[in-house]
Write the structure tokens for this entry.
Amino acid sequence: MTVAVFYGVPVKDRKYKRSRIISESLVCPVAISFIDDIDVKTGEFKDIEHLLFGETIRNKILIFPGSIGGRLNSIFIKMLASNGAAPSAFIMPTADRDVITGALISGIPYLYSVTPDPVSIINSGDEIYVNPYRGEVKMITHRDITGETDNEIIDSQIDAAIEGMEE
């Protein structure tokens, strides 16, 4: 059962034509520096000041607003992939050149310009389906902040996000 559907810019690259990812989400409400915030060997947030300190991006669908720190982020994304510590996919509400470059050179599926804003609706731990070739993100299960599955509240969150986009 699909709880919510989001759409982004389809990635019409042949290598993503058959990509379908189902994984747990990790949502970060702030921009990430792949240089300073994440350990490239383990995929864990290493900055003790970061909201997600100790969490890992490894094999999760990373949903975040973008990156900070410049072009080196793409190299650090490639290092994460080389170490087997990369996320399953990147989902962003806006385009981020450095993350997209890193995803392309690493073979990590990605979507950008995703609406409604997935950062404000999806919670960490939600089960997510991504089809980058079709530009599609589906929330399969939704967890409230206590970690309990609660698919009833999602409708009001989506309605609020859409109303915010229309204004």
